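Lecture 7 notes: from sequence to structure.
We start with the chain below.
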Amino acid sequence: MNIVIKVPFILVSMFVLMTGLPFMARAQDTITLDFCFQQLQKTYPLNRQAALMEKSSDLRTKNLNKNYLPQFNVNGTASWQNEVTEVVIELPANLPQLQGPVIPNDQYKLTLDVSESIYDGNVTNYQKKLEKFNLNVDKKNVDATLYLLKDQVNQFFFSILLTQEHIKLLNETRKQLESKLKEVESAVLNGATLKMNADLIRAEIIKLEQNIYELSMDRLASIRMLSELITMPLDENSGFKTPVINVPGLDYENKRIEFELYGIQRERADLMKNMVTTKWNPKIWAFGQVGFGRPGYNFLSTDIAPMVMVGAKLTWNPWNWNANKNEKKMYDIQGDIIKNQQETFDKNLRVTTQKNLTDITKLTDLLIKDQELVALRAGITKIASSQLSNGVITSSDYIFRVNDEIQARMGMEIHKLQLIKAKISYLYNIGKL
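Predicted structure tokens for the same chain:
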């Protein structure tokens, strides 16, 4: 016999959530820089502007397409005038007088007017092209702004990593001093050393704890700012992974969105220059009118009459006193200004990247010396620890050697992070991040 036990849905849901939450937490325990960039791209409010811009541009393009469709207008008038046209024919007195038509003082007209562009001088076609350029410029501006926010992410992320490494080193030193403190306290109890030596180590441990607390709060502040920037809950328990950065080559290549944007703006200026030509082009319309009026087209008639008219219209202004020529020169100047701005941006970027490349070389060389220095300081601390145990030196001397080793290790960790940041800054500046 099969026994079927029905488990309430709410219990199943709670079980899934309870078992799933630890996995979700573990999945987000280690935060990477790339993840922060992706999260920024997904959640930052400015990112939604691109879709809104596309919708707006699509509506404007649809309206431009309606320029090719017939345009309908219903027009109606009702008027009264104090005088009207009179037909007076003077005849000799011996002839019967002729009575001309009497036009009423009140007149009425109701018509449906239709017009359709046959050739608009290519204006609409250029307006549609210009709309595409404007949309591209607007979207690139959004992308450029979002790209600039990556630098803020870098600052917060590396601030977290730096304080993280400092806290790690200080905690290791604290454990080392706590171990040494037990040894010194034992010596004090045995009368082998003065109590002052133990107090000096205790004071240094308290000082380390203060530094650790201060760095922890600085780290928490950076985490909260990063959390707000990427719109993701983060806390002091979140782990942050040091990125591994490989710079493929040190050849300069400007891939910045702003540099590309200048190129698009120059192309837009060329398009607007060519668009000036449409002012010279003739424009042709077809038109029609149907309706009723009193009088109608026969203004001498006093009856309500139908009105029907069809035709075509041509306008052309072949001479405008060189206004179009001057306008083209204006767009040429505008293009030259944008080109100059583009060259200035590229020049400034080249200067900045030279600093990045110099920093990469400098920090690579410093790390080699850091390794030698840390090895020497660690050896000195080890000897000092043995000397303290044997009563050769005081706790003050020992703490001095420990602090030297801390500074050496901290300097090496700082240089490691600075090297990674210099590489990231280089990639960021040339637009490859």
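Points to note: The first helix runs from residue 9 to 27. The two ends are 64 Å apart (CA to CA).
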